Amino acid sequence: EVMNPETGYVLAFRDPESKRSCILVTVTGQVEIPLLQYQNGSIERPALQEEIQRLIPMTLDPSTGYIMAWIDPVTRRMALRVSVSGEVDIPLLKIADGAIEPGMLSPNLQALVPVYLTPDSGYVMAWVDPVTRRCAMRVTVTGQVEIP
């Protein structure tokens, strides 16, 4: 959901009923995961409850053709994945090419679509705030994910 910048956030992934956020992007481009706020150190992925693990994308070996994915820890099915070229793939959602053009999407949904960049920029894809033009996340030409 695209947020009003006056809230301090520009993007939120929220439960539609409870409105609890699993991922927030601040107006400065910082990514926050409220369920994982930990003050004194770090927590390794295996120590997290299964329901929290589902909220965190996994980094993949680029030799697989993908650099990150949201993977169900039980079924191992991928809900969303990002290829080394920066393409976002939703394996369970198949839409014919050209069936949905960007102009057909609501402005809120258009703001969630990643921007594809020319490789000479050093990046192939980024999630860019439509108002501030700051990147929440970007993928380099080598497949590295950066959260500035």
Summarize the model shown.
With 148 residues, the protein is mostly beta strands. Helices cover 5% and strands 31% of the residues.
Structural class: mainly beta
Output the number of helix runs.
2
| Main pleated-sheet profile | 4 strands, antiparallel
**Spatial gap, N to C terminus:** 20 Å
SSE order, one letter for each helix or strand: EEEHEEEEHEEEE
Report low-confidence residues grouped into runs of 5 or more.
none
Radius of gyration: 16 Å
How many beta-strand elements?
A: 11
Number of domains: 1
Helix fraction?
under 10%
Shape: globular
Mean pLDDT: 79
Strand order of the largest sheet: 4-5-6-7
The fraction of residues in strands falls at: 25-35%
Could you describe the 3D structure shown?
The chain has 148 residues and is mainly β. The chain has one domain. Helix content is 5%, strand content 31%. It has a four-stranded antiparallel beta sheet, with no helix packed on it. The relative contact order is 0.15.
